[in-house]
Protein: Cell division protein FtsX
Amino acid sequence: MRAQFVLSEIGVGLRRNLTMTFAVVVSVALSLALFGGSLLMSDQVSTMKGYWYDKVNVSIFLCNKSDAESDPNCAKGAVTDDQKSQIKADLEKMSVVDTVTYESQDEAYKHYKEQFGDSPLASSLTPDQMQESYRIKLKDPEKYQVIATAFDGRDGVQSVQDQKGLLDNLFGLLEGMNIAALAMMALMLVVALMLIVNTVRVSAFSRRRETGIMRLVGASGFYIQAPFIMEAAVAGLIGGTLACAFLLLARYFIIDHGLALSEKLSLINFIGWDAVLTKLPLILATSLLMPALAAFFALRKYLKV
Structure:
């Protein structure tokens, strides 16, 4: 097979169906950009989980005098010193517990003022209305239920709260957005495949006389199909290259510059450039193989003499 002939046929095919080729390039670029974006979103969620789950605490809030009058969990009265000592001792014996930190009413009041000092409610609160608590850092954040089972409903304990539950709502939202992006990617991928098949078929139909003659003089099926397959592969590769460019620009302008989320949202541990760069070979390989395979299967019927 002469490479010059194949390359010339590729150029002719791409120019002859310029509008449909452009549509293929755009569809492949958008679908693979969404694909890469979904992979990066999944990495981002995993990174955030690892970062934040390592920092969350389980809080055991103790009954105070106000709770004893209004909360059924504190019907036996405010927590006593003996109960506090026993709770701490039991916590320190548990294998799932990493560290235990006690927060007094005065400390809780100070922290509340620091966070919600502008709230109208802050001016009416006094330290004795705040709750004492134990803040427990677990070795495995998934083991919250062990603490809840052991201390929920215990004398002197008003409630057991897991900060991980608050983060789960955020991560659930992010994962829902990721699923929506994957669904959109799948739709765009179907559109791209349909455009590739139609483009190849139109190209094959417009050159049916040439391919018929080549078949009659003994040209092999692969020799005839190669230009059409490579046309689709080249168009797909252009789209994949654009998709890679979109991802790189998005990472640059959204996280590092432009919106500069890495500066504005310093509490979020964003994925690095290495996560983006490792996805690019997969996107390029997909952009090359997907159109080539679609063209190969679409050509079998249209290249018969």
